[in-house]
C-alpha cells in the first residue's frame, strides 16, 4: 500500500540503537533532495562544526524509487568538511532499491561510535558491529570483506570509506557497490569522523506494485521511451566520455590545469579510444535498463617473468578529464591506473585530479618542490601521479593533508591562488564559459549538475544577463524536482513534469502530482535556506583569475559580463533563500 508519510530510521552510534520515525510532509518535499533537506533541518545543528558527533549523515530516496526505471539515485546530505555548510552528494548502485526493499524512505545516522563500526540495516533488523580490523584497509579490500561478513542477494548495498575518509580528508567520498560513489564535498570524511567504516543495507523485504492496468501500461511506455531513444546509444555505447572529443573540438575542455582548452594529444584518451582499447563490459545501477557504467581494465606486473594482475576500473567523462586532460596524461591505461588508486584510497577523483593539476603547475612555477610533493610532479608523468594519489589519500605529510582540504586551502598557504581551478570546489570537466563558471561556483552543490550552465554556454551566443540568470534559476528548479524523485539526470529529457505527474498518480500520489510546480519551488527554497543557515555567504565565493583568461570557440571570456553575471546570480540566490541582503 502506498503511504503518504515518510518512514525514517534514526540510528544513534553512541547507544547502538535505532528507532523508526514516522514523519509527515510527502506532499511538500516529495523525497530525495527535498526529504534530505527536510531531515537536515530537523536533526542538524547549523551552529556546530561538521564533525560534531551529533551532526546527521542522511540517505534519502524518492516516491518513485522501485516503481519506475532510472529512479536509481540516493541523496546523501551532511554538513561538509569542505566548507562547513549544508551539502548534498548523489550516488547510484544498489543503494536506492536496497533502502526501498528495507521499507525505508531515509536513513539518518548520528553520534560517534567508540570503535570503528559498520551499520547493518534491513527491514527487520539493525546491527552495529565492531569492525576495527577493517580500519586502514582500502575501499576494495573492505568491500570484499563486507560481502563475506554480511550475506545478501541482489538487494544488498555496501557503502564504505577508504583511508582518505578515515583521516578526515575533505575530498574523501563514499564508495557504493564498487563502481558508484557519493563523491563530492567530503561525505567520506563525515563517515570517518563518526568512526563509521561501512554501511550495509539489506533489502530483505518486498513491496507490492500497483495492480492497475494504468500503472502497467505507463511503465511500459516509460521503459520504451528510455530504451528506444538516443539515450541508449549515447550513454550505453560510448557513454559520457564521448564529451572528451566534442569539448576538445569546441575548445571547451580543461587541459593542463586549464592552461588551454584544446589539444590534439587528447585524441588518445577520447571516449572512442577507451571503448576500442580498454572497455571490458557495461554495468548498471539497480532499476536502470540503460547500463551507462563503463568498466575498463588495467594490469600490473607483479613478477619479472611477465606475470600480471588485472583490475577492473569504472570510468566516465569526469574522471578522464580530471586525471587525463587536466594532468596531460595521454594514455588510456595510465588514466585508468590513476583512477584506480584514487578509488582505492576513497578519494573523489574529480577533486583529487584537479588538485594535483594545480600542484603540478605550482611545481613548475617554483612554489612547490619535492620537499612537499615527495615524488616529482610533471604534466604527463603518470607514475608520479599514481604515487601522489596514495600520498593524498593517506595524508602523508603536511602538504598533502592541506591539499586534501581543498586546492584553495593549499594555495592560500603556498601561493598560486590565481591558477587554482576551483569553482566552489574543484571544477568539473567543462570549460564552456561565463554561465557555467557562475553556475558551478555559486550553485548549491558546486556541481556541474546543479543546472545546465555548460549547455547554455554552448547554445546561446548573446550576453543577456536576465536571460542567463533566469535560465539558471529555472533549470535548477527542474533538476531539483528530478533529484527529489531521485531520477538519474540522464533521463531528464524523458521525465518531463507531465510524465512525472502521470507516474505519481498511477501509484497513488495524486496530491503531489497536482502540485509539482509549487513543490519543486518549495524544495529549491528549503535547500538554499539550509545552506544559508550554516553561514553561507555567496559574496565570499572567489573565482580564480585563470577562469577569466580562457578562450573557447566563442572567443575569450568577457570579464565585465562575467562579474555582472555573478552579481545578479548572487541576488537571485538570496531571493530564493529569503535573505535579499548580505549580512
Automatic annotation (TrEMBL):
Superkingdom of origin organism: Bacteria
Pfam family, one: AFOR_C
InterPro entries noted in UniProt: Ald_Fedxn_OxRdtase_dom2, Ald_Fedxn_OxRdtase_dom3, Ald_Fedxn_OxRdtase_N, Ald_Fedxn_OxRdtase_N_sf, OxRdtase_Ald_Fedxn_C, Tungsten_al_ferr_oxy-like_C, W-dependent_AOR
Co-factor requirement: [4Fe-4S] cluster; tungstopterin
Domain Aldehyde ferredoxin oxidoreductase N-terminal: 6-205
Keyword Transport: no
Gene3D superfamilies membership: Aldehyde Ferredoxin Oxidoreductase Protein, subunit A, domain 2, Aldehyde Ferredoxin Oxidoreductase Protein, subunit A, domain 3, Aldehyde ferredoxin oxidoreductase, N-terminal domain
Keywords linked to the UniProt accession: 4Fe-4S, Iron, Iron-sulfur, Metal-binding, Oxidoreductase
GO molecular function per UniProt: 4 iron, 4 sulfur cluster binding; electron transfer activity; metal ion binding; oxidoreductase activity, acting on the aldehyde or oxo group of donors, iron-sulfur protein as acceptor
Family that this chain belongs to: Belongs to the AOR/FOR family.
Protein name (record): Aldehyde:ferredoxin oxidoreductase
Lineage, broadest ranks: Bacteria, Pseudomonadati, Thermodesulfobacteriota, Syntrophia, Syntrophales
